[in-house]
Design brief:
The chain is built from 4 helices and 9 strands, in the order E-H-H-E-E-E-E-E-H-E-H-E-E. It has about 160 residues and is α+β, with helices and mostly antiparallel strands. It has one domain: Gcn5-related N-acetyltransferase (GNAT) (Aminopeptidase). The strands form 2 sheets. The chain has a 7-stranded mixed sheet, sandwiched between helices. It has a two-stranded antiparallel sheet with strand order 5-6. Helix 1 packs antiparallel against helix 2.
Length: about 160
């Protein structure tokens, strides 16, 4: 992998340019049921971007999309949060450590989200970055806890912003 890593912001103004690319360029999980779920979640996020309810950030290496993260403003239990609406990594890059990023793609995207949240926190009231692990997967919850996330309630995980 070369060092031409970039993040591209997708919003309601440019989602039409990326919709087909997003749906056709990813390698999904080989299990048909999981592929259907991943693709369905991606289609739902595209609809939310079209309605300006979330912003999507693509992590690219040259012209190849490695993964994406969708972020929105929300509140959980009356706490203002930046919510991770969807985090997706191309199947062939899951758990792959990328030297030029000094991280895995999922960790890099979460660090990017934390950076976005920290910048927003300078302007408005904001306390946490929060996410809802897909299907409440114990494996995902464990991974996020290793990154510093804590359990907010029985569904949500959060990390307090600095």
């Amino acid at each position: 992998m070369d060092s031409n890593i970039t993040i591209v912001k997708i919003d309601d103004k440019n989602i039409r340019l990326y919709k087909v690319i997003l749906l056709q360029s990813f390698h999904f999980h080989p299990d048909l049921e999981r592929t259907t779920r991943e693709r369905g979640l991606l289609e739902e996020i595209i609809k939310l971007v079209q309605k300006n309810k979330t912003k999507l950030y693509l992590l690219k290496n040259s012209n190849e999309i490695l993964g994406l993260i969708a972020l929105s403003a929300s509140s959980i239990d009356d706490f203002p949060v930046i919510q991770v609406d969807y985090l997706f990594v191309d199947y062939k890059y899951r758990k792959v450590y990328v030297d030029t990023m000094d991280s895995t793609i999922s960790n890099y995207l979460l660090l990017f989200a934390m950076n976005v949240a920290e910048n927003i926190k300078e302007t408005i009231g904001l306390k946490y970055l929060a996410l809802y692990p897909d299907a409440q997967s114990e494996k995902l919850i464990s991974h996020y806890k290793e990154m510093g996330f804590n359990v907010l309630n029985k569904y949500w995980l959060f990390i307090k912003l600095k």
